[in-house]
Amino acid sequence: MKEELFNELLASAQEAVAIKNGEIKAVRVTTVTLPDVKAIRTKAHLKQDEFAQVVGVSPSLVQAWEQHKRTPTGSSLKLLRVIEKHPDMLNMFKVA
Questions:
Q1: 43 & 85 share domain
Q2: C-beta separation of 40 from 83 below 8 A
Q3: Whole-structure pTM value
């Protein structure tokens, strides 16, 4: 690793520690709110197993999301965001 690149990395790590210790404030803070899976499912009038089938995951995973034991990630998170903003989209995913 080039010395210049190493020094930038070291400075960045030192800045992160200073932010964590409250010595300096972060320039930008990004917060991500997670979708309320139970509210989305309830609004769709679906049982957990029905919702799981539509989203393409197991009913136990839906239950874990609702109990905040697991966090939706990846494509599941993106799909939940779409359903949250456009609940009518569920009709596209329902299995006959």
A1: yes
A2: yes
A3: 0.66
Domain housing 13: 1-30
Instruction: Indicate if the alpha-carbon torsion angle 76, 77, 79, 84 is positive or negative.
Output: positive
50-71 pLDDT, tens digit each: 999 988 999 999 999 999 999 9
Q: For 65-73, which contacts have Cβ atoms below 8 Å and span 24 or more sequence positions? A: 65/37, 66/37, 66/38, 66/41, 71/34, 72/34, 72/35, 72/37
CB 62 within 8 A of CB 37: yes
The reply to whether 24 and 62 lie within a common domain is no
Please check whether residue 44 is in contact with residue 83, taking contact to mean a CB–CB distance below 8 angstroms.
Answer: yes
